[in-house]
């Protein structure tokens, strides 16, 4: 029990953690290192704000449209900060800011549909939809803003409030986004918390949170599901991928090679649904390896703020070490680097864009998620062999098939065990589509109306037609 006035005063917390610029490897800023015991007050604020926010969908639509405008207006500051802490080329940061605003605008105008059940009985059953309460959104470092918006836009549109936790590698642009949105949304409707673990773990298990929506690695996803089990909160998990691209024997290599290259190397390969394994008919293998190696050698690698840069650094030192480790293991197992194969000299976390050939199929760069600028190119002799190899992984996020005969390519794409299968491109998403992985790649559905309903619960009113 408090015994004096001093006991009522919260502890002064000045703890902060460093944020590193991956282009230099040097700390350039810091962020508040919020502690797990601060979450009670944060979730309480989100809960109090929920009562007003849930009341009026028309108010929410207007507010989220205004929020989208505010994000665009802050685009220069958001994009520069994102490039500093994440590493991606500035043009990609601008594109990410635009996608963040687009998500707000899309969900602003999406409303759940009330439905009546007609089953021949003289009763009226009506399904209405209710928000869940405070939602925890936990986000990784590869697309901090757009992945955050993919969570908070549908959650807010549905009438929930949100506690958003970015990765400690990329807290700054998210903090700025939080301030931009706080200026136009009602107080505490969206609260950003920053800090190192166990902040995320404690947020996922907090009893006041009714939905945990998480994007990140499979192992952390499992920990989040276990943590949320304590309060039986709903869980949506968007996890890792090891997407295969399968080229068919009628593919026009010259025509597709640029698209294919960037499907693997965009954002320095740090994309959950990047092409991470490439299966090529044996007779085209040498030609494809050579075409991709030429692209890899011609790419301008450098700091994201340099306007010439096409490929920035890897985001953080641990990730760079992991990419180096799996690449060296593959080379030790007998693989050959047709391009790259090593980190770049000098400061910063730069890894040369790498095309690997002669990779043993059991090598970690094939069986796991390299999540970096490294692509193994694997020959196949029969289409069944290629499809079996593509599906022979614990992941199931996306996959693609490339060929000139589109119907044939689509028929092969249908055989892929994944959430989204593309023909002649990869990792293209529409805001209106469901996004869901199978196997270890995820639980639940994000995107489109499914993303909205993922943040709502059905409420059924059942009454006789007549008194
Ligand atoms: P990560 O799992 O290490 O971290 C993700 C987030 O979880 C971060 O905010 C982190 O601080 C937090 N966290 C860490 N431990 C936690 C815990 N015990 N409880 C709760 N939260 C915790 O992932 P990462 O390295 O930041 O991101 C890369 C991974 O994300 C890759 O596997 C990638 O495929 C995946 N990813 C998936 C998608 C998708 O939509 N499926 C999209 C982007 C990235």
UniProtKB/TrEMBL annotation:
Pfam families, sorted: Aldedh
InterPro entries in the record: Ald_DH/histidinol_DH, Ald_DH_C, Ald_DH_CS_CYS, Ald_DH_CS_GLU, Ald_DH_N, Aldehyde_DH_dom
Keyword Cytoplasm: no
Residues annotated as domain Aldehyde dehydrogenase: 15-452
Superkingdom of source: Bacteria
Keywords noted in UniProt: Oxidoreductase
Keyword hit for Acetylation: no
Catalytic-site annotation from UniProt: 238
Family membership: Belongs to the aldehyde dehydrogenase family.
Protein name per the record: Aldehyde dehydrogenase family protein
Organism: Streptomyces dubilierae
